[in-house]
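Schema walk-through. Below, the input block comes first and the output block second. Nothing else is stored per chain. Lengths vary across the set, and this one has 122 residues.
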Amino acid sequence: MLFLGEELLVIRRDEKPEIPWPGYLDFPGGGREGEETPEQCALRETFEEVGLDVTEDQIVWSRQHGASWFFVAHLPGALVSEVRFGDEGHGWWIMPPEEYVAREDGIPHFRELLNAYLTERG
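--- output ---
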């Protein structure tokens, strides 16, 4: 989960029936390659999908959910102008995190994890 200022960056998933949650709102991320740690994977995928270089020390929260890991990082809002959308998905935008939690097209367990982070953050 990548925050740019107070807003959350989201990606509309492709409409491919072979992928989980086609057409839903997603966060940057994906599968690990080789011997990557979960953190290295999340940072690489973020760069590939939205062109933003996030470092491990910018990760402020993590949670394992089944076999998957979820991370939160906060970057300055001004970096919105530096987003370079990759070739997966139907586009990106930013929204208040509470909006994602309330949306029917947010991936349900992502909504729960984001809500957990927001609750813990206070």
